[in-house]
Amino acid sequence: MASIRKVTHKNGRVVYRIAISLGRDSNGKKIVKNLTYVADQSASPRQREKEALKYAMSMEDKVKYGYDIKGEKEMFDDFARQWLASVRDGIACGTYVGYKHLLECRILPYFKGRRITQVRTADIEAFYKTLTGSYSPGTINRYANVLSCIFKTAKRWNIIEDNPCRDAKKPGRRKDIRELRYFTPQQSLMFLRSLDLSYDNEEEGDKPYVVSMQYKVFYTLSLFCGFRKGETLALHWSDIDFDIQEISITKAIGRTEEGFNYKEPKNAASVRRVPFPDHALLLLKDYQAEYETLKRSRGSLWAGDDNLFVRSDGSLMGHTTTYQHFMRHLKRYNQWVADHPNEARESGMERLPLIPLHGLRHSCATLLNYLEVNIVDIAKYMGHANCSTTMNIYAHSFEARKYAAQKKLNEFMEENACAEG
Questions:
Q1: How many alpha carbons fall within 13 Å on the CB side of residue 223?
Q2: Distances (CA, A) of 136 to 132, 148, 203
């Protein structure tokens, strides 16, 4: 049984020295764990002793079952940094940078000075409340995920008994939270047609603006093949099989320790071969001819390495360039619709929602579902590890399809009723 000794300091502060005997080692020497319990100075002497005894008995059980007694003194910020270092080699560089930013921005300043064993569920919920109003629910979820990972690791290492994040309630979702943004199948067609329009260009006087072939190819592949931006940027001509109309995804552009550079795709399922339609084939062939002409004109100044999407000298296109161009194009097109209402109406063109560039990937999955491609094939097409991911992300599309299923059931029953009659 643990022994307890009361110690009163000169200033009147009362603590209890606790010694827990764990038997003897191989040399016959006693194994003892020493702890200090700081009593509630406002409690009565009897209450102090009662609480100290309760603490001693609890710690004795914990230590005998493998509890790391050092954890009692482990500061949260020290352990959080240990955790970050421990996961660094197993995650993508961009993920690591994101974790580090979340820790340094809000988590470490909030929990600084606290021992990890002293953090309770109420403390986690109080932290979530400090984020409300400043961050979206999605960002708050990212903070919650990082915190939960830290405490899960602490529990696995026997530093704490329970994860305080497990039962912590996050703030309710705002009613005005924006949902997944994408083009409907009809809007996707309008978008493709918008790439062939001529637009007024105030920067170059009377010369109209047209979308370059390079951007037409980029957006068409994003929409028809569902590529992530980094996957599209990383494409080389050698990745394209013109004969069977397939594109191999084996790499991506993303954040690395050297900056934005080539890296492995998001997961094993992301390594895939994706077929593309005839419309994309024609664009690719036209762009290849244009590409070769540009390459010859640059001669020895050409800095490219067979990569599809390039700057004027052939070097890899910047990772933000396509997003910026995409948003400018949508605004330019919507302005054209507003300035040419009759022509737009006769052509069946309408304003398009200002979706993010990644929305073209969502639009692809929506289009495939509209065309009644089965969920397994959509998941493979998109590079998802399993079908549940596809279902969860694109639930809106599958919800709409259930009415098509209802219509088919009605038609089936009507046809068979007629046959019986």
A1: 26
A2: 8, 18, 37
Joined together, the tokens standing for residue 390 give 């596809």
Per-residue pLDDT reduced to its tens digit, 287-329: 999 999 999 999 999 998 899 999 999 999 988 899 999 999 9
Q: Mean pLDDT highest for which of 264-278, 284-298, 402-416?
A: 284-298
| Residue-wise pLDDT tens digits, 356-373 | 999 999 999 888 888 888
| Structure-block tokens of residue 406 | 């209802």
Contact 31, 23 (CB under 8 A): yes
Long-range contacts of 27-33 (CB under 8 A, 24+ apart): 33/63, 33/69
Q: What is the dihedral of CA 186, 190, 192, 194, to 10 degrees?
A: -170
Q: What angle do CA 242, 244, 249 make, to 5 degrees?
A: 75
Q: How far apart are CA 37 and CA 17, in angstroms?
A: 7
What HEC string does 97-138 produce? Answer: HHHHHHHHHHHHHHHCCCEHHHCCHHHHHHHHHHHECCECHH
Which of these, 232, 255, 240, lies nearest to 309 by C-alpha position? 232
Does the CA dihedral 169-175-181-186 come out positive or negative? positive
Q: Is the pTM of this model over 0.70?
A: no
- 215: tokens are 């951007």
Averaged pLDDT, 280-291 = 95
Structure tokens at 328: 């400018």
Polymer length of the chain: 421
- Could you tell me which of 199, 198, 248, 195 has the C-alpha nearest to residue 223? 195
Q: Tell me, rounded to whole angstroms, the distance of Cα 404 from its chain centroid.
A: 32
How far does the chain reach from its first CA to its final CA, in angstroms? 88
Contact 146, 175 (CB under 8 A): no
Within 10 angstroms of residue 138's Cβ, the number of other Cβ atoms is 10
Greatest Cα pair distance, the chain, in angstroms, is 103
Q: What type of residue sits at position 51?
A: E
CA-nearest of 95, 231, 67, 255 to 162 is 67
- CA distances 83 to 68, 97, 154, 297, 311, Å, are 16, 14, 8, 53, 40
- Provide φ and ψ at 23, rounded to 5°: 85, -150
CA distance 94 to 85: 14
Nearest C-alpha neighbor of 277 from the set 244, 313, 310, 254: 244
